[in-house]
UniProtKB/TrEMBL annotation:
Lineage: Bacteria, Pseudomonadati, Pseudomonadota, Gammaproteobacteria, Pseudomonadales
InterPro entries xrefs: Restrct_endonuc_typeI_TRD, Restrct_endonuc_typeI_TRD_sf, Type-I_RE_S_subunit
Keywords, comma-separated and alphabetical: Coiled coil, DNA-binding, Restriction system
Similarity remark: Belongs to the type-I restriction system S methylase family.
Species this protein is from: Pseudomonas cuatrocienegasensis
One Pfam family in the UniProt entry: Methylase_S
Protein name: Type I restriction enzyme, S subunit
Length: 462
């Protein structure tokens, strides 16, 4: 805060700006609130309204707007309606009748109150120095801030909506990719190999399995996932018919050690890639038992198949040994592009989850269910083109996301910049004909001195 203040401004203290409204006997805990009711409950949390109640005896009401300060959270809320105060930490402030409450509200929003965690912060407000312009200028500042910050809020709302749009964009790209729409023009300009048939694909997979020493995967005759519309040149097969191997990792949790062989769980696949940053390790003996069963290699697809995150997938993209739990592994043949396989599962994740998972307390995608999933395969050349286009469009989305994050940061700084400018006296013009703030302050002090003294320790009641 600047050490110099404009002409006709004055400095004052908390006690000359505010009176505090008591919440004795009126506070309610969040757990006691309801989803609907006659009166909103306002607490110190970031959510503006925490719930509702119908008990009129708990209501705080005032003819003029009030300000709530969160003692623990530092949240500042503008209240211009009857409400019920939340639990501990809610400080209800009423400004002096001679002051513009909206101006004081914005002043508090600009006040630098350093976080002390969940400790109390109300002392910072009580010890702060308050800047008072003439009353007419307070009104001009408040009106200008209302106008400018409403524009900032509109811009922020539009920016905040973009991530959801990008998520839908990615999903539409994946849907177009695995339905053939993304490469429709490409197919018209490129010939498809004549022998790309179900029988030819099966024969190729059988030969590759035999060369690697893998056993055939049993095909389940139960109903599989619903098919999507796809080009007639593409082939539909069950995963059990085209995968070289489908198996899973540990069922019991190995002993985690400070060092050893890397070990990951379902939560390490939540970002669509493998995440080893938690640094979990297991012994060589336990690792060998698990690794020999799964042997993850670059290009294999890992899929969470039990618990939270079921259906999340990631391609193996590391060349060191690791083990895992609650994750299934699909070893693909050479004729399936690993990125195409992941794109297919990402595009069909919701359908697979709804149609294939089962279980009581937590979802479960068994190896048999995985094998039963039908996958549609374009020829390898088209798979490569699909992956290229998906990666290109996703890179565009990621570029937009970076710009959105940068814009959000600038908007957050813009709000504080506008507030800071207001309280340096630079946001609206000063009028030398305005009654000086010193005169206004003297009148407030005289009125308070003439008012009947409240009993010590008592606060204004609602």
């Amino acid at each position: 805060m600047s050490k110099t203040i404009p002409t006709n401004w004055a400095t004052t203290s908390f006690d000359e700006v505010f009176s505090q409204i008591s919440t004795t006997g009126k506070k309610v805990k969040t757990g006691e609130t309801q989803l609907q009711g006659k009166f909103p409950v306002v607490d110190q949390g970031r959510t503006f309204i925490s719930g509702y109640l119908n008990d009129e005896s708990l209501v705080v009401s005032n003819d003029d707007p009030l300000i709530i300060f969160g003692d623990h959270t530092r949240e500042i809320k503008w209240i211009d309606f009857p409400f019920i105060p939340g639990a501990d930490g809610v400080k209800i402030l009423k400004t002096d009748d001679e002051l513009n409450t909206r101006y004081i509200y914005y002043f508090l929003r600009n006040l630098p109150v350093e976080s002390k965690g969940y400790a109390r912060h109300f002392k910072c407000l009580k010890e702060a120095v308050y800047l008072l312009p003439p009353l007419a200028e307070q009104t001009r500042i408040a009106q200008k801030l209302d106008e400018l910050l409403a524009q900032v809020d509109t811009l922020k709302a539009r920016i905040d909506a973009i991530p959801a749009l990008l998520k839908r964009f990615r999903q539409s790209v994946l849907a177009a990719a695995v339905s053939g729409r993304l490469t429709e023009e490409w197919r018209k300009e490129n010939s498809i190999r004549a022998k790309w048939t179900e029988d030819a694909i099966k024969a190729s997979v059988v030969a590759e399995r035999a060369a690697l020493g893998f056993k055939p995967i049993k095909t389940n005759v139960s109903p599989s996932t619903n098919r999507i519309e796809a080009p007639i040149s593409w082939a539909w097969l069950k995963l059990s018919e085209v995968a070289l191997k489908i198996t899973d990792g540990a069922h019991n949790t190995p002993k985690i050690m400070a060092q050893g062989f890397p070990y990951i769980t379902a939560k390490d696949l939540t970002g669509g890639t493998l995440n080893f940053t938690e640094g979990k390790f297991i012994s060589e003996a336990e690792h060998r038992e698990l690794y020999n069963k799964c042997s993850p290699k670059i290009g294999d697809l890992l899929i969470v198949n039990i618990g939270a995150g079921t259906g999340n997938s990631a391609n193996v993209d590391v060349d060191f040994e690791f083990s895992f739990k609650n994750i299934a592994i699909i070893k693909r043949p050479e004729i399936i592009n690993p990125q195409y396989l992941k794109a297919f599962f990402d595009a069909r994740k919701k359908t697979i989850f709804n149609e294939q998972t089962q279980g009581g307390a937590q979802p479960f995608l068994s190896l048999t269910m995985l094998g039963n999933i039908e996958i549609v395969l374009p020829a390898p050349e088209e798979q490569t083109e699909i992956v290229r286009r998906v990666e290109q469009l996703f890179a565009f989305a990621e570029q937009l996301e970076r710009k959105v994050q940068s814009a959000k940061s600038r908007i957050d700084h813009l709000t504080q910049s506008i507030l800071a400018k207001a309280f340096r006296g630079e946001l609206v013009p000063q009028d030398p004909n305005d009654e000086p703030a010193s005169v206004l302050l003297a009148r407030i002090q005289a009125q308070r001195a003439a008012a009947p003294k409240a009993k010590r320790g008592r606060k204004a009641s609602a």
